Every structure is written in structure tokens, then in C-alpha cells.
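Q: Start with the shorter request: fold the first protein.
A: Done. Sequence, then structure:
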Amino acid sequence: MDTAADITAMRRAITLAARGLGSTSPNPVVGCVITDAAGAVVGEGFHQRAGGPHAEVHALRAAGERARGSTAYVTLEPCDHTGRTGPCSQALLAAGISRVVYAVADPTPGAAGGGDTLRHAGVRAEQGLLADEAEAGNAAWLASVRRGRPYVLWKYAATLDGRIAAADATSRWITSPEARADVHRLRAEADAVLVGSGTARTDDPQLAVRGIDGVTQPLRVVVDTNATAVKPGARVLDDTAPTLVAVADDAPAGHLPEAAVLRLPRAGAGPGLDITALLGALHTRGVRSVLLEGGPTLAGAFVAAGTVDKVVGYLAPVLLGAGPAALADAGISTISRALRLDVTETVRIGPDLRITAVPAPARKGN
């Protein structure tokens, strides 16, 4: 039976894991806490960067000889394979850990099995403590592994009546400085930031993270089907971060840097590119999480393709009454086909409201 001390240690491990968001891809975020027989913390750590030591190794180094006979709490099952680093299951055994509590089983075929290795070696290995909390903290990576495509978070900012700009196309600024700063946090946690040609043409965005020290800049992706929106000298082509411009196979793109061009098939129906092919290409490049920032046409294509995993909407206490809506045609023609969402969080950000929601499970009868 899990004790209060077990729960406290695992919750600390989950908090530590979150420190790696945005810098570990294509690896997961993982936290580890080691406690001695009296329940005192003797070591802790988190996975900081891909290719670097895993969370367990950082914690074991901090614990030193005090790890022998201790308990390790890990948010994800210790890996059981040799990649750029050795298997954490063997590191735990070598350190003399007597008990391992991990929240979530590793779904990666090559890395899974650490729990069984530990059990066969006589270590008490237990799974499932605070699994839901650990899953939520590692949602993007877990979903990416299970689905074979990047996890997609669609973010938008709108007025209370759902407008992203006024009738004359002006949109700066609908939301507050506090809300805009929070968006940079989302960017910092993502592997890639993605916009469409309309946004690129209208705003000439840089798409870099600003105001956060030591951040790993995400890959910038512009979906520019006909290669007409991103021009030489566009801010998204600067050297702040790597950039891909996704264009159709048959689009003339000689004006763009060759290394930045990603050629993809056009969508089978309607304008734009094949969303599945786009996500597949990004996944192949190690992208496990995508922040979809716009605009409404591209967001509609992602919703229609069933590839939006989370929605974060920033709603400003502003009314316009006219202007473009946050979401364009998403292939939904009747209320019975509406994409129903479960709200998971509502938070005040300055004067604005941030609403987080995920697609609801299919209801019977729909």
C-alpha cells in the first residue's frame, strides 16, 4: 500500500520532470527522487537534454553511497536499453537500490522492460503510483510514441465573441501582455511552432521564444502550400532558430533556402497540404510536440484531420461583433458532428481567461 511518503516523493519527481519540458525531445521528460530507509531524500534529478544522463543517473550521482538499500521514485519506467546512454535499470541495480516505484510503463518497444529486469534481479519494482499525474506531465511524448505522430496543441487568442481580428483585419493586441508572455511558455515547451501562410503573410512572425532564459528554441514551421507567403528576408528565416517551410511537391520554391524547404503532397480533398504527411515528416525529424498557432484555416484542417490533441484558448474581455473567427471550416456540417471537448483547466491570466480543453471521448449514440 502506498504511503504518504511514497506519494510525496513521486509528486516531487513529477515536479522535477517538468523542468525538462522543451529540451529533451525526442526523449521523454522524467524525474527521479531517491529516499533512504528513513524516508529522507538523498538524491534527485531530472532528464535535462537528449543525449545527456537520464533522471535516474542524476539522482544516483547525487545520492552516492547513500543509494544502497534506498527507494527510487521515477515518473517513467526505467529504460532497459543502451542508446546514447546506458540502461537505467542496470544503473539502479549497480547502485544497490532495493525498491523502485515508477508511475507509468514505458510504451517504447526498445526501451521497455526495465521493471521486469529489476524484478528478476530481486528488486521490489512497483508501477502505477500517481500514474495520471505523471501521464499528464509527459502527455506529449507518450501520445507521440503511441500514435506515431507529434502531439498537437492548438493555441488561439480571441475576443469573448470568438474573433481573432477586427473587420479591418487589425488584431494587435486582443489579449494582454500577461497572456502573450504565457504563450512564450507554451512555445518553450514545444518541439515545433507551426503557422499557416495567412499568418506568415499578414504578421511576418519570428515565432521564437522570448523572455525566457536558457530556452531551447523550437523548430519553426510554416505551411506555405504554394510557396508564396514566405519571402526572402522574412523574420522566420533568421538565424534565431531552425525553420522549415512546408510546400507542395509541385510548388516553385527556388527563392527559399534549400535546407528550409519541406516538400509534401497536397491534401486529397480541398486546398492545403496533407496533414498526416506533414506530421509524419516532423515526427521523422524527432518532433514529438507541435504548438499550432494559426491561423483559422490551418487550425480547421487539423481539426478536420482529427489531429488536435489539446486546445488552449486565451479569451479577452473584448467584443468585436465582426471579423474572422478563431476556427475556419473544419468539415463539421451539423451539431451532431461537433468536436466536443472536456475542459481541464480555467485560469485568469491578467485580465484574460485561459481555457484548456481536450477532445472528449466519443459519446454513445453520436
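Q: Next, the second protein, separately.
A: Sequence, then structure:
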Amino acid sequence: MARVYLENVKKVFDDNFIAVDNANLDIADKEFMVIVGPSGCGKTTTLRMIAGLEEVSEGKISIGERVVNNVAPKDRDIAMVFQNYALYPHMSVFNNMAFGLKLRKVPKADIKRRVMQAANMLGIEEQLEKKPKALSGGQRQRVALGRAIVREPAAFLFDEPLSNLDAKLRVSTRAELKLLHQRLQTTSIYVTHDQAEAMTLGDRICVMYKGKIQQVDEPMAVYNRPVNRFVAGFLGTPLMNFFEVELHDNVLNLGQEKISISAEMLKKIKAYDGKKLVLGVRPECFSLSAIEGLSQNSIQGQVQVVEPLGDRIEVYLTNDQGERFVVICQPHEALRPNQTMQLYINTGKIHIFEPGETGKNLLY
């Protein structure tokens, strides 16, 4: 078990492409850290540098008390679980799980104990004599996990390990991974592009974009207090809605519609009077019913698509400015395409950003 620490880490490839730029990340002992972001953001490169599969261009990486920049992957006391399982097809499940221990010349009795213990933990005791081709995708992933567990490493590294599973199996395996971490209490670093995995698995999440770490915090803190527009728009299903507004006379103007905000919020954006800003509203922060004292804080939208999902309805609309947005409604609401709706905004939960794809959140 170990703390993993990245200090001013940078990765520049031969074509001068900066894949990771000045990354600083402190992962506590026993913590489950999820690095999340879109394709090409640098998250997998960061994980590969921690594993020693990519060289660090600048900065240093520590595992425990040891700087590992020049330490070979096999000597870093980590175990990695890959997206494609990376199992040996000619070996049985038992031998796949035991292979790394055999290379280290661990005594046979100890190997058997560790493999059986991991197999029992993962529910694959009956698969130990089978070859990988006889297993389902979920079983193969369990074998890959088991191979990592028997190593008893200081840290687990996961590179999108669930991406090859179907949607239902991903959800159930996600829960199993969380339980496994709670049981093993081993430092874990998990890379994914799936925000649902990030939100549900991580003790904290690290959001990356274009090689830079944007925000590191507990999942709900990132969701409720995103530092910039990118983070706000990346987390959440459906995604946050963004509207271009201008601040005039202490009111946000969205076309002909006016949105009043609290004195506390106004104090934070007062310097932007007369300037364009971006209003962020999550789909669940709209209401079809007027709220006393908030009657002016509404926008009109024309229904384009209605998606009933059982426990809720997701409604896609356009406003008078042609901006498309989505709201979440209760399942009993009777809605139809081309219908005009008056939507009231819970202004206590809005976000206000500077313009630009990474414009900072002015309210936090």
C-alpha cells in the first residue's frame, strides 16, 4: 500500500505533442482515484507513466517514499489491469493468475493460497481449469483482476477495464470493483472516459482535458461546484445546459427573458456588468410549475423531442435564440413535440461562467 504522487509531470512525444502538461496529483494511501476525461485528454498517458510504460519528460513520480522515474515497471510494486484483459490464451485460468508469481519464484504453496483466495473473492473458483476462450467477457475480466490481486501490490492501475463489457455487465462489475476496493484497501488509480464510472467508483476524481488537470475533488463536489465550463459540461447525464447571457442592471438577460440572481451571486459577477457571460443550468434544475418569488426567472422553449425513461422524461427543446437545451420532467407530465413550455429555473443552483470552453466558474 502506498501514496502515489505526481509532481510537475510532463510528457512530450517525439513530434513535440504535449500529452500531459504539468500534472500535479497526490493520491493518498488506500484511496480510489479515478482519472476521467474525453479521448486524447492525457489520462491513459498519465497512467502509463505511473506504470513505467512511458518515460516522464519532466517532473517526478513517487510511489510510497521512492521516486520511480528510472525504475523498471516490474520493480515498481504495481499491478495493472488492461482494457483487453491481456490473458495468455494457451494457459488455464489458474496459470494465468499464477504466472507473475512463478516468475518471481514465489513458493508453490503460497501461489496456490493466493490464487484460491483471489478466485474465491471473485467467484471464479469453478473456472480455474478452463482456458480464456471458454470464458465470457465478464469472467475474463475477473481473471485479469485476480491476476492483479495475487500480486498483492502497493497500487492497482486500471486502464478502462470495463469498456469491453456490455452495459448491464458494466454496471454490476462496477459495483463489484467498489466492494473489492473496500475489502482490499489498496491504493487504486482507475482511468475511464465514462463519467458514470468516475462518479460511482472514485473516492476522488481527477478531470483532465487537453493534457491538463482541470479539477480534483470528491465526485459530488466536482458535480456541484465545477471549476470551469468544461468540467461542468463533462459531468452529468444529460449534460448541463449553457446559455449566452449578458449582465445588465443586476439582471442576467437571455434574449428578451430576464433572470434575477441573489445578492451573493451578484457580488461575485458585478465586475462583468455589460459583458457576455455563460449561464449553466442542469436539466434537473428546471420546473414546469411557478415558484413564488421566482416568476420572472423563466424561459420559454419549444419541445423538439420527448424521451420517456420510466422514472423520468427527458425533453429536448429550443429557445427563442435557437439554443437547444434539455430538461428532466416527472413521468406524469403530458408533453408532445412542438408544444411551447414555460420553464422556471432554480436560480439557487445555477452556474455562471466566463466565455470560452474552459471559462472559469465565477460563483466558486
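Q: Describe the second briefly.
A: Confidence is low (pLDDT under 50) at residues 290-294. Residues 50 and 61 are 7 Å apart (CA to CA).
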